[in-house]
């Protein structure tokens, strides 16, 4: 047994770093494959992006990034994503509380529906939302008399981003809230705390990391979103043009330098976000003793 | 349960191994396949024209040919070809986009001289499409800059039609107000009235017609006619401005691709058919202005008479110059847009 | 959910919360979904069927199925491998590795497409060589498959890693001590333990692979009947005034979403049952 393990490890060119890994075989093989696969599909292509950007002078990169249109696109993408994630945080909290704490007819259906944005392709969501919120659509028609225009305005982008980010808060908080130790709440109540105080002082601190994780996930997803947004946005530069669309437009204008620079910037941002998310998840795990 | 699971996994793996083998050779049995990479509003034209060519080719050579098409904003389509989309022929909105492909060595620099009439078998122009009854009273270019008028046009950076729109407006303003500074002011005011900037002509048309945004659409003449046809005469009116531009959408065989694929003869025959009576007739039926005088005469009632400037007018000095002055990085369009 | 007396809010609060939740979900999720089917059937069933058997639509369905099969199988196999490497051993830099695996999740789909154009496009690093030797990657199915694999990269691994971490290594260690080979341990001990989570990951991976738009759009070239996937076909029809046909094709994907959700709900109860048994 030990011999096969070693040969596999040698084949992959890696040796188990620690003896404490014990008896389970296949470290070298699976780690080798993992690194190979990761490199081929993710790391090398992404590195290509940085190499391409590095061909530019720092001044050029700076000019591209500080161009009004780039700045506005980034502002729109990050700003609206932040607002959408915040709305999802609040409304997601309501949804998750209703799903976990209350019993009502249609609860299971509501629960299942939360995942639709995960499963519904973004282009489909895009045309569906646009048709719905256009002035001659079901909802757009209702809002028009009040002077509220959703489709082809930044508000439309917000609607699309809320849609695609909706499941994240609910799905990250749900398991934590389900596992929440009821006795703590009961103890607080026995000690005379009001219901609101109990929720604020006892429940909230436990679920807070999960909430923040959900928020960060929804935000990360929204920043990069393209398919659902381009149909409804109106795509007006400096007003309703998101950063991913600007990348596509720069590409279509043969302006590779601009496209790659903006893309690399967004990539750095997503990487940073991921670290934040992972940190939050570890915090959540430490606090609740489970993976969220 | 577990056994099922395993066999499922094996079946899936097998499918994945077989799929790549099956994919490159689909069940289509055409002797030759051509790819025509075109711009946005030619969808309907080439759908019919491809059928015509396939029939002709079959009758003449006994061989079958299948023509695939790809449509999008003209600039974007050119980018795809430069990036390796294997187009046998390109039929784009303006010469500069094919020049850009030629600059990368895909076809000869003098491509535009290889076919008659600047390699443009049909022409078009820019007109205004307004809502029925013209409620905002839009008659000419000046009406577009009035406060409260919403103008729909695509993005000149990605769309060929939008560049023609822009240049037609420029020509008008230059003629009327006499200086480039004034023309720039005019266009800046015009683009202030643009609420939506789609990446292709078709996207703008959909925004205007189906989504009900805007008071006037700056459109290809053929696209305006088509909208009336699709949505009914009772929805839209076409307004012809006092001055517009002669848009010459050019066609070309992509040397590098046809030589590698061995499809030059078919590709050249395909483009030549556009110049024949049948091809010209089909173009006219799809609201492109035919070049052939005889066919043009047959359809002269369809197309309104417009005063047209050309891209070779001293005001523009050809596409390369126009592109550089107006649409390249830091050009006039960028100046009026960042303000 | 045992004794609720001290842990519940007044009925008025409860129904307000439920009402807001239902309204939110109804407005943002149910209505768009219903709208897809309503628009698809606006001209009746015949027009609906006609839109689906149109040759370009069929070609798009075929391409989508092929690309999805490749992406799902590749990511399932590699997802298992990665989860095994990460959860069954301890090594430095583990959380960094997990972050890298998660990375495609937060990369914009457009960027995902762009990186493959930079590598394999005619102006890219490997493009000229590939094209001279007759390999088509960008604007052909391999490019579409690559972009799809990229965007669905974390889906299976993400489902497996937390569960396998939770399960620990005791069972596998016991099996090895009893003389089982590595493959046997994996197939007889680990796989049965994670099969529902695996299937769940496969399901999500599948749904995303079939529906990916942004990344595929950048590498596709939009050749009708050849490099258009279902979502791209939806966009094309939408831009051709064929709204009903566009929504008809879109309804296939919406149907996929509904089926996915149903299967997911069933799977979840299985996963929960399994966790409860521990």
Automatic annotation (TrEMBL), chain B:
Keywords recorded for this protein, A-Z: Periplasm, Signal, Transport
Record family assignment: Belongs to the prokaryotic sulfate-binding protein family.
Cellular location(s): Periplasm
Protein name, per record: Sulfate ABC transporter substrate-binding protein
InterPro entries in UniProt: Sulphate/thiosulphate_BS, Thiosulph/SO4-bd
Gene3D superfamilies linked: Periplasmic binding protein-like II
The keyword Transport is assigned to this record: yes
Span of the signal peptide: 1-29
UniProtKB/TrEMBL annotation, chain C:
Membrane topology of the entry: Multi-pass membrane protein
Keywords recorded for this protein, A-Z: Membrane, Sulfate transport, Transmembrane, Transmembrane helix, Transport
PROSITE patterns: ABC_TM1
Record's keyword annotation contains Transmembrane helix: yes
Keyword Transport: yes
Main localization category: membrane
Transmembrane segments: 12-38, 58-84, 96-126, 138-157, 243-267
Entries under CDD domains matching the protein: TM_PBP2 (cd06261)
Domain ABC transmembrane type-1 positions: 61-268
Protein name: Sulfate ABC transporter permease subunit CysW
């Amino acid at each position: 047994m030990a011999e096969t393990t070693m040969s596999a490890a040698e084949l992959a060119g890696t040796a188990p770093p620690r003896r404490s890994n014990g008896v389970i075989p296949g470290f070298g093989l699976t780690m080798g494959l993992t690194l190979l696969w990761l490199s081929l599909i993710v790391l090398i292509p992404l590195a290509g992006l940085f190499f391409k950007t590095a061909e530019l002078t720092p001044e050029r990169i700076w000019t591209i990034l500080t161009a009004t249109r780039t700045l506005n696109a980034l502002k729109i993408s990050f700003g609206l994503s932040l607002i959408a994630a915040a709305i999802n945080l609040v409304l997601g909290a309501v949804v998750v509380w209703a799903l976990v704490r209350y019993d009502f007819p249609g609860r299971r259906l509501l629960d299942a529906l939360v995942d639709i944005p995960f499963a519904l392709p973004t282009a489909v969501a895009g045309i569906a939302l646009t048709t719905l919120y256009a002035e001659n659509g079901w909802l757009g028609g209702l809002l028009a008399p009040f002077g509220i225009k959703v489709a082809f305005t930044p508000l439309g982008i917000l609607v699309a981003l809320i849609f695609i980010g909706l499941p994240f808060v609910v799905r990250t908080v749900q398991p934590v809230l389900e596992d929440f130790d009821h006795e703590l709440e009961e103890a607080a109540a026995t000690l005379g705390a009001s219901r609101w105080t109990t929720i604020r002082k006892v429940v909230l601190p436990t679920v807070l990391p999960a909430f923040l994780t959900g928020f960060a996930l929804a935000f990360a997803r929204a920043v990069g979103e393209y398919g659902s947004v381009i149909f409804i946005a109106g795509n007006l530069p400096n007003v309703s043009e998101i950063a991913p669309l600007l990348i596509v437009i720069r590409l279509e204008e043969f302006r590779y330098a601009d496209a790659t620079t903006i893309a690399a910037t967004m990539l750095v941002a997503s990487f940073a976000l991921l670290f934040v998310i992972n940190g939050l998840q570890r915090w959540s795990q430490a606090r609740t003793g489970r993976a969220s | 349960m577990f056994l099922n699971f395993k066999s499922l996994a094996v079946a899936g793996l097998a499918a994945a191994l077989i799929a790549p083998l099956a994919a490159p050779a689909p069940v289509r049995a055409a002797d030759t396949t051509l790819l025509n990479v075109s711009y946005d509003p030619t969808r309907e034209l080439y759908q019919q024209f491809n059928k015509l060519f396939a029939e002709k080719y079959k009758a003449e050579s006994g061989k079958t040919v299948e023509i695939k098409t790809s449509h999008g904003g003209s600039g974007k389509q050119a980018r795809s070809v430069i990036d390796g989309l294997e187009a046998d022929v390109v039929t784009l909105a303006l010469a500069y986009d094919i020049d850009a492909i030629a600059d990368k060595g895909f076809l000869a620099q003098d491509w535009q001289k290889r076919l008659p009439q600047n390699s443009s078998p049909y022409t078009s122009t820019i007109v205004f499409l307004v809502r029925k009854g013209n409620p905002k009273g839009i008659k000419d270019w000046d009406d577009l800059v009035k406060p409260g008028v919403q103008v729909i046009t695509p993005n000149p950076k990605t769309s060929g039609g939008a560049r023609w729109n822009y240049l037609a407006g420029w020509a008008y303003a230059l003629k009327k107000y006499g200086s480039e500074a004034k023309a720039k002011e005019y266009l800046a005011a015009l683009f202030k009235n643009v609420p939506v900037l789609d990446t292709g002509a078709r996207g703008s048309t959909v925004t205007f017609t189906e989504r009900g945004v805007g008071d006037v659409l700056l459109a290809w003449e053929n696209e305006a006619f088509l909208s009336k046809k699709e949505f009914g005469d009772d929805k839209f009116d076409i307004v012809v401005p006092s001055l517009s531009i002669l848009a010459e959408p050019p066609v070309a065989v992509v040397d590098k691709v046809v030589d590698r694929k061995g499809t030059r003869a078919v590709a050249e025959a395909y483009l030549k058919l556009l110049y024949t009576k049948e091809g010209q007739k089909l173009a006219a039926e799809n609201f492109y202005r035919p070049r052939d005088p005889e066919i043009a005469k047959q359809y002269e009632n369809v197309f309104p008479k417009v005063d047209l400037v050309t891209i070779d007018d001293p005001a523009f000095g050809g596409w390369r110059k126009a592109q550089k002055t107006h649409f390249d990085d830091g050009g006039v369009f960028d100046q009026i847009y960042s303000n | 959910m045992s004794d609720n007396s001290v842990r519940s809010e007044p009925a008025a609060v409860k129904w307000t919360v439920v009402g807001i939740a239902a309204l939110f979900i109804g407005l943002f999720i149910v209505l768009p979904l219903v709208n897809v089917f309503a628009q698809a059937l606006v001209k009746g069933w015949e027009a609906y069927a006609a839109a689906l058997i149109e040759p370009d639509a069929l070609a798009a369905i075929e391409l989508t199925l092929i690309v999805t099969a490749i992406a799902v199988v590749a990511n399932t196999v590699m997802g298992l491998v990665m989860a095994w490497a990460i959860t069954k051993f301890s090594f430095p830099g583990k959380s960094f590795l997990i972050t890298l695996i998660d990375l495609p999740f937060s990369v914009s789909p457009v960027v995902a497409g762009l990186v493959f154009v930079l590598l394999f496009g005619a102006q890219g690093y490997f493009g000229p060589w590939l094209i001279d030797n007759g390999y088509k990657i960008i604007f052909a199915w391999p490019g579409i498959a690559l972009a799809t694999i990229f965007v669905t990269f974390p889906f299976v691994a993400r489902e497996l890693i937390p569960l396998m971490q939770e399960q620990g290594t005791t069972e596998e260690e016991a099996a090895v001590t009893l003389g089982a080979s590595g493959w046997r341990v994996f197939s007889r001990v680990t796989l049965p333990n994670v099969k529902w989570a695996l299937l769940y990951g496969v399901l999500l991976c599948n749904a995303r692979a079939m529906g990916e738009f942004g990344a595929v759009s950048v590498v596709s070239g939009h050749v009708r009947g050849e490099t258009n996937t279902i979502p791209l076909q939806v966009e094309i029809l939408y831009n051709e005034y064929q709204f009903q046909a566009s929504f008809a094709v879109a309804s296939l994907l919406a149907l996929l979403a509904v089926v996915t959700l149903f299967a997911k709900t069933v799977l979840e109860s299985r996963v929960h049952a399994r966790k409860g048994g521990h």
